[in-house]
UniProtKB/TrEMBL annotation:
Belongs to the TRAFAC class TrmE-Era-EngA-EngB-Septin-like GTPase superfamily. TrmE GTPase family. This is Mitochondrial splicing system relatd protein. Residues 247-368 form the G domain. GO terms for biological process: tRNA methylation; tRNA wobble uridine modification. Residues 148-516 form the MnmE helical domain. Pfam families: MMR_HSR1, MnmE_helical, TrmE_N. GO terms for molecular function: GTP binding; GTPase activity. The keyword Cytoplasm does not apply. It is found in: Mitochondrion. It comes from Coniochaeta pulveracea. GO terms for cellular component: mitochondrion. InterPro entries: G_TrmE (IPR031168), GTP-bd (IPR006073), GTP-bd_TrmE_N (IPR018948), GTPase_MnmE (IPR004520), MnmE_dom2 (IPR027368), MnmE_helical (IPR025867), P-loop_NTPase (IPR027417), Small_GTP-bd (IPR005225).
Length: 519
């Protein structure tokens, strides 16, 4: 019963004061009125809790649902007339401990009464108390039910707001990444063991390989791992875009219609629209879900070069330029305007197009197509613009004035061309974040993991340099080489939570603080 009291170190090899023998309970479904509320209890006192709440009913068969009346402990007061009760015996449970699940009516008073009754239950084997945030998952980790990469994926699953964030989180939850990193770590440990054997026993025993030959052979293994780390790092940069959002900067000359376009896309008046040039002085940002991708949209000050540019406008332009340089996608907006002689021309600015060309993805869009009466004139204006601005692709044409909000899903009604623009944007998001079919599991690589992979790569590159240096010198520093492998393996261990105790406890705090109570 006192599994952990007898074992000062958990199965992960970590002594943790917060890991204890207590039986914990919490409301695992959302707070507030609902059809059903799920209360979860985990720990050695589950059976005692059941016996206190259902004193005369038989204990339910493990993993089978049973309908029970729940009583206030030591009384005949009914707290829930018909609860669904499930018992899962350890160790094959989500926390690795005994679990009791109570599905009760989701009224606030019922949930409160059941939780209060659990707190009054008596257990001779353990203290019964309300769980801390993330404590169920923490127990799953300490009991080897989840590795750290899976815990992070679970945290991402709970916080996923868009379809693409959900997809990435699901990939991380499979445990495949943890297995991959463990596989690499084992290979590095075996290689290090061979090198250490050489250090320890070379004076007494004959080895087939010389130290330089051994380092060269290990280098081949390390090269393979380095190649794979490169792929994982690349994948993590792509998933970071899904997690943190794709940054889009909307650039163009004053009055091109940037604010109008931004408002149409985000579906609200985020930016001020006015016929006065230079209305947008600062960067206006809004986050939204575009076809399942989280995006952060930035409307910027127009790049005005003619006329007097005041200090505030100048600062706005500087910020716009910075936004463009940081953006993943730049939308370069031009517009159809009337010239002094009454004819039409497409107004654009060179700086916008230069920044668009430098961006990872860009779109050139011409607004105010409604200002041209016929299609032939529009076509010849576009051809002239394309040649003058040396554009490789055909610009998209839109009219914010004729557009229906992008939030209206009926793509038939798209006189302003906004749905077409959204589809093109979604295509560029896909190409920014896509991974080949056989690399889909890598969608789960998190920023923390990427940093550790980069650290690991550094140690392995040092090893390869040492091996090469040894071959050139004809003399190997095997102690240094073994140390590089030890450090690299430890980086991988910290990804899955098998690292040295201090390291793991440090990352645990960061990871678990994101969890809610009941998870
Ligand atoms: N005819 C026509 N006018 C438009 C269209 N889109 C915007 N406008 C008008 O163009 C003017 C400028 O629009 P804004 O959206 O404020 O332009 P902006 O690029 O944000 O301007 P700055 O803030 O000065 O950089 C306003 O009077 C809009 O009503 C369009 O599709 N057709």
């Amino acid at each position: 019963m006192f599994r952990y009291a007898l074992k000062p170190k958990t199965s992960r090899g970590i002594s943790s004061l917060s890991f204890n023998n207590d039986t914990i309970y919490a409301l695992s479904s959302a707070q507030g009125r609902a059809g059903i509320a799920v209360i979860r209890i985990s720990g050695p006192g589950c059976k005692d809790v059941y016996n206190s709440l259902c004193p005369s009913a038989p204990f339910p068969k493990p993993r089978y649902a049973a309908v029970r009346t729940l009583y206030q402990p030591f009384s005949t007061n009914i707290v829930e007339a018909s609860a669904l009760v499930l018992y899962f015996p350890s160790p094959r449970t989500v926390t690795g401990e005994d679990i009791l699940e109570l599905h009760v009516h989701g009224g606030t008073a019922t949930v409160k009464a059941v939780l209060s009754s659990i707190s009054q239950c008596a257990s001779c084997s353990s203290r019964i108390r309300y769980a801390e945030p993330g404590e169920f998952t923490k127990r799953a980790f300490f009991n080897d039910r989840l590795d750290l990469a899976q815990v992070e994926a679970l945290s991402d699953t709970l916080s996923a707001e868009t379809e693409q964030q959900r997809r990435a989180a699901v990939r991380g939850a499979s445990g495949e990444l943890g297995r991959t990193y463990e596989g690499w770590r084992t290979r590095l440990l075996l290689a290090r063991a061979e090198i250490e054997a050489l250090i320890d026993f070379s004076e007494d025993q004959h080895f087939d390989e010389s130290p330089t030959e051994l380092l060269a052979n290990v280098s081949n293994i390390v090269d393979g791992i380095l190649h794979s780390i490169g792929l994982h790092e690349m994948a993590s940069q792509r998933t970071e875009l899904l997690r943190n959002g794709i940054r889009i900067a909307l650039l163009g000359p004053p009055n091109a219609g940037k604010s109008s376009l931004m408002n149409l896309i985000v579906g609200r008046e985020a930016s001020i629209v006015s016929s006065e040039a230079g209305t947008t002085r600062d960067v206006v940002e809004a986050s939204l879900d575009i076809r399942g991708f989280l995006c952060s949209f930035a409307d910027t000050a127009g790049f005005r070069t003619e006329g007097e540019v005041g200090k505030i406008e100048e600062e706005g332009i500087r910020r716009a330029r910075k936004k463009a340089e940081e953006a993943d996608v730049v939308i370069a907006l031009a517009s159809v305007e009337k010239t002094e002689d009454g004819s039409k021309r497409i107004v654009f600015d060179e700086e916008t197009l230069r920044l668009a060309k430098m961006a990872r993805q860009s779109l050139v869009v011409v607004n105010k197509k409604d200002a041209v009466a016929d299609h032939t004139t529009l076509k010849s204006l576009l051809a002239e613009f394309k040649a003058h601005a040396s554009l490789e692709l055909e610009p998209l044409t839109i009219s914010c004035r004729e557009a229906v909000s992008a939030l209206v899903r009926d793509t038939e009604k798209d006189p302003g061309g906004i749905h077409g623009l959204i589809s093109t944007l979604a295509e560029s998001f896909t190409s920014l974040t896509a991974l080949p079919e056989d690399m889909q599991d890598l969608l789960g690589v998190t920023e923390r993991q990427r940093q550790l992979l980069a650290e690991c790569r550094g140690c392995l590159e040092d090893f390869v340099a040492e091996a090469k240096g040894s071959a050139d010198r004809g003399e190997a520093d095997v102690v240094m080489a073994a140390e590089y492998l030890r450090a690299a393996a430890n980086c991988l261990a910290r990804i899955t939570g098998r690292g040295e105790a201090g390291d793991v406890e440090e990352v645990l705090g960061v990871i678990f603080e994101k969890f809610c109570v009941g998870k």
